[in-house]
Design goal:
The complex is a heterodimer of chains A (about 130) and B (about 325).
Chain A (H helix, E strand, L loop, with lengths): L11 H8 L17 E13 L10 E9 L3 E6 L8 E5 L3 E14 L2 E13 L4 E4 L1
Antiparallel strand pairs in A: 1-2, 1-4, 2-3, 3-6, 4-5, 5-6, 6-7
Chain B lengths: L2 E2 L2 E6 L14 E3 L8 E4 L7 H9 L5 E4 L3 H17 L5 H22 L2 H19 L6 H7 L6 H19 L3 H13 L9 H4 L7 H8 L1 H9 L7 H9 L20 H15 L11 H11 L6 H13 L5
Antiparallel strand pairs in B: 1-2, 2-5, 3-4
Helix pairs in contact in B: 2-3, 3-4, 3-6, 4-6, 4-7, 6-7, 6-12, 6-14, 7-11, 10-11, 11-12, 13-14
The chains are: A mainly beta (about 130), B mainly alpha (about 325).
């Protein structure tokens, strides 16, 4: 999955973050209910549903995945993702369904999006877990 | 606070009364602060046109009705507003006054219900009336400004922004159909604020970080409340989602820049700021129009669309001295 090309243009700080391999400790001062695991990988995303009046021509592309928790996932994409859009994020052995809740512009072709996970599916065991 | 027989009185604009119509409630006049209110027109009599004219001659711009009868006054306005909107004999000041009262009334009721369906339905029916009345070329901003309320209720702000949006859209040459849709979008632009605690919205002092973050979420919350509706266009949704975005990317909630901001959202942003700074807020008094225009002009090109600010500036000055 990590050899796939993403159209996202990462700013220096994010490029340095994703250049390192593997997991990363989340910061001590995070005040979240469910602590985030900082992961650095790419995933294939499919925007499965959008609000009726949101025009969407590109629905499948590659994104960077920044962090994940029991209930949420943070991705970095090359296009803006709107809140309420339903996403299917595919990893090598796992699929995650999520609903976008916020998006912030980081730079040209770089948007950081937070989504709420609605279900996990482990592709090897074919088990699906709803959150 | 004025009162009669221990009943609290609420101010209304004489311009909203049609001469020779029966309002059905007692209407009072007051000659000034501290003076006892006197009966201007009793509930069974029609409003006398000579007495209305006398009020205008004496530059008395407020009459009063009892707070308990305010609902009856609002029903009177709703009943007469179509008639007023279409009557060429009615002055533009009366029309805008009635328009404003009806819009505030319907919107406040819809907002109070908290039901998105009701709110959207209300905005769609109001927007046509707004465009019909403000489509009259004789209506200028200064005349409109005089009859608007300038308090900090979300429904007052939304009603004022919708009127300003139509004036600016008219000035920029948008079609009547676009103006209709824009007015509805503007009435909805702050719907996300309905989820914010009134104690934060009305806090007289400086907001702390948590409160400020809560306020900054309102475009996102509004978008989420409306996104699934099929009766709203992309442009209208962007008025809700992007009206706090700035051309240089320093806005919120997304930080989009330049052309990424929808033109209708840019337009809404200009009049939204203008309305906010020319209204009384819990933490400051209202600014003079010239000061407000100075602030907009300073932001033009960097944060706000320069052409839209120029057009709004021209619209504001166009009406000076002939309201």
């Amino acid at each position: 999955m990590n050899v796939l090309e993403s159209k996202t243009i990462l700013p220096a700080s994010l490029a340095a973050f994703f250049a390192e391999p593997g997991y990363c400790e989340s910061t001590f001062f995070e005040s979240r209910k469910n602590s985030r695991l900082r992961i650095r990988c790419k995933a294939a995303i499919s925007i499965e549903a959008s609000p009726p009046s949101i025009p969407r021509s590109e629905r499948q592309f590659i994104v960077y995945v920044k962090d994940i928790s029991k209930r949420g996932i943070g991705i970095v994409s090359h296009i803006q993702i709107f809140p309420a859009e339903e996403l299917l994020i595919c990893f090598q052995h796992r699929e995650v369904r999520a609903t976008a809740v916020r998006c912030r512009r980081i730079g040209d072709f770089c948007w950081e999006c937070g989504a709420q996970i609605t279900s996990f599916k482990n592709l090897e065991e074919d088990n699906e877990y709803n959150t | 606070m004025l009162a009669i027989d221990n009943r609290q009185l609420v101010a209304i604009s004489p311009a909203t009364l049609l001469s020779e119509s029966i309002v059905g409630i007692d209407i009072y006049a007051s000659s000034g602060e501290g003076s006892e209110p006197i009966l201007f027109c009793s509930k069974e009599n029609p409003v006398n046109c000579y007495r209305l004219k006398k009020l205008a001659d004496e530059k008395i711009f407020k009459l009063f009705v009892s707070a308990q009868c305010y609902d009856a006054y609002q029903s009177y306005l709703r009943e007469h507003w179509d008639q007023i909107a279409e009557d060429p004999g009615v002055s533009s000041k009366t029309r805008t006054s009635v328009l404003n009262e009806v819009v505030r009334d319907v919107l406040s009721n819809a907002f109070r219900s908290g039901c998105t369906d009701k709110i959207v339905q209300a905005t769609q029916s109001l927007s046509e009336g707004i465009v019909k009345i403000l489509g009259d070329e004789r209506i200028v901003l200064s005349g409109l400004y005089d009859v608007l309320h300038h308090d900090y209720a979300t429904f007052t702000h939304s009603a004022n922004v919708a009127s300003y949006v139509v004036l600016l859209a008219r000035g920029l040459g948008f079609s009547v159909e676009d103006q209709n849709q824009m007015a509805a979008g503007a009435l909805l632009h702050d719907i996300g604020k309905l989820s914010i605690d009134d104690r934060i919205l009305r806090k007289p002092g400086r907001l702390d970080e948590f409160e400020f973050k809560k306020i900054q979420k309102h475009p996102l919350v509004g978008f989420q409340a409306l996104a699934h509706r099929e009766d709203l266009s992309y442009a209208q949704l962007m008025m809700v989602y992007q009206h706090h975005e700035k051309l240089d990317g320093t806005g919120y909630p997304v930080g989009v820049i330049g052309e990424e901001i929808h033109p209708w959202a840019k337009l809404c942003a200009v009049v939204d700021i203008f309305e906010a700074i020319t209204s009384t807020r819990p933490y400051r008094s209202m600014m003079e129009l010239s000061t407000a225009l100075g602030i907009l002009t300073k932001a033009a090109g960097k944060e706000l669309d320069a052409e839209m600010v120029r057009c709004w500036s021209a619209i504001t000055q166009e009406g000076q001295g002939r309201s």
